[in-house]
Specification:
- InterPro entries: Peptide/Ni-bd, SBP_5, SBP_5_dom.
- Keywords: Lipoprotein, Palmitate, Peptide transport, Protein transport, Signal, Transport.
- It comes from Neobacillus rhizophilus.
- It holds the Pfam family SBP_bac_5.
- This protein is α+β, with helices and mostly antiparallel strands.
- The protein is built from 18 helices and 24 strands.
- A 6-stranded mixed β-sheet has the order 14-20-13-19-17-18. Strands 3-12-11-10 form a 4-stranded mixed β-sheet, covered by helices on one side. It has a 4-stranded antiparallel β-sheet with strand order 6-7-9-8, with helices on one face.
- Strand 8 and strand 9 form a beta hairpin.
- The longest helix has 18 residues.
- It is globular, with a radius of gyration of 24 Å.
Length: 570
Amino acid sequence: MKKSKLSLLLVLSLVLSMFLAACSGGTKNEEKSKDEGKTKTTEEKLAADQTLNVLESAEIPTMDSAKNQDTMGGIMLNAVNEGLFRLDENQKIVPAAAESMPKYNEDKTVITIKLRKDAKWSNGDPVTAHDFVFGWQRALDPKTASEYGPYFMEDRIKNASEIIAKGEKATPEDIKTLGIKALDDYTLEIDLVRPLPYIESYLAFYTFFPQNQKYVEAQGDKYATDAAHILFNGPFKMTKWDGPTATEWALEKNDTYWNAKNITLKKVNFNVSKDPQASANAFEAGEVDVTPKLAQAAILSQYQGSEELLTYTEPSVFWLKMNQKNPAFQNLNIRKAIALTVDKNALVKDVLANGSIAADYIVPKEFAFNNGKDFRDGAATYMKMNKEEAKKFWEKGLQELGQKELTFTYVGQDTESSKKTDAFVKDQLEKTLPGLKINIESVPFKIRIDRENKQDYDLLFAGWGPDYADPMTYMDLFLTGGQNNRMSYSSAKYDELVKAAQTTLGAKADERWKALHDAEKVLLEDDAAIVPMYQRAANILVNPKVKGLVTHAMSPDMDFQHVKIVETNK
């Protein structure tokens, strides 16, 4: 969520025109008549039933903002809660629980934020500065076992690094030294280690949401385990959810929300469907209004040219991780062999066939800009497929390891789309590299995350969507010992370049850009640490009666608060 001199929430022109049309009260759309040369007005009448039915492809792993680390949880948390700022329907960072945009000291290391006094929790309690202090401290407390709290705060929020270094020995008094304090009930002061040019989009992320201390502590271990043990301060409240294994849940308008008068949607019903064809069939039957992201060419071809199909390129990049806890992946030649083997163009054209782009990079196209120039402009691409070279690296690597064959456990997801991708990658690797055996384990999303966190894999298919508007949201993932490294990769050169971009080059945009370009080369070409596969295109079916559905390049991927259901002839 950064926003330096590089440009803020750039490129969120993600072809959202379809989503952003028609968003006000019995909305009026004006059109120019070519024949009459004058304006005519068409009316869109709100439907009596303001209920939206949505299919998703995964369950919700957690509804605890301190513990969540996945896309689905992010979408739901942003629907039922909110932090200081949020993205509006025009992709602009705007005040949410904050009364206004922040004020800074001279060197921009101290931020003062006034909170709105009309924000309430769903139990009637006011949302105060103390709720933010507690939420942040809880996210950093090792007892919470948050993945994102340490990752987001380390070396950014004052004293976070020192607290993290103490690990389980950190005391409550230590945690209270974190650089956030309530000057009064409605004034927050945040101390930064250094100026963060992307701070406003950064603070919109769910890890920085408030939590009501009295309520959280009263719930104990049951907090956020189901809908009955969550408190809400956002546009909606969760009225049905039985926990992480639940395949259906529901949201309803939160009447205690400070901006409730501008929320038209009354209810959102969610069901999980991991079969794209079943999702399309349900849409065609009128059972659902919005499908999950669809990847099957046979399905998408049926809707080409239809107003019901929305296609847009996301800044999400997917890759194959190689766990260097496995001695085989500590060998550079083995990693290079894997990196050069997969035909990514065939993957996106023949398997995905959904508009996704083959990627030989980790920072996506049309996401981050410096003086109007895309990060990818002038940047190289790395380790393009070369099966002959892959075989040479493979043979050399096997000789160095003293092995004739290797067997790897490949962890993928259990959706139909993921299974097809994983089968393709397995086929490419086994057919190209003699003596290689791949055992695929297709697991639910929550388990895949757990396997990644525990590094319980050899190969793992994963990906990353941006958390804030800057290349650093990708680049700092692979720092030595980083909270999201999870593959035991370590490079002093990579660390040096990324750290420089984080610190000494922070105000030198061009030099910072070059350091990040160089770091990407180290990661992908010099070290072949991961294997980028593709930048994803999203394809979803949306009922024409649904107006105001918004997607974002950063979390949340989808936003329901502007949705209105209108009457149609269909």
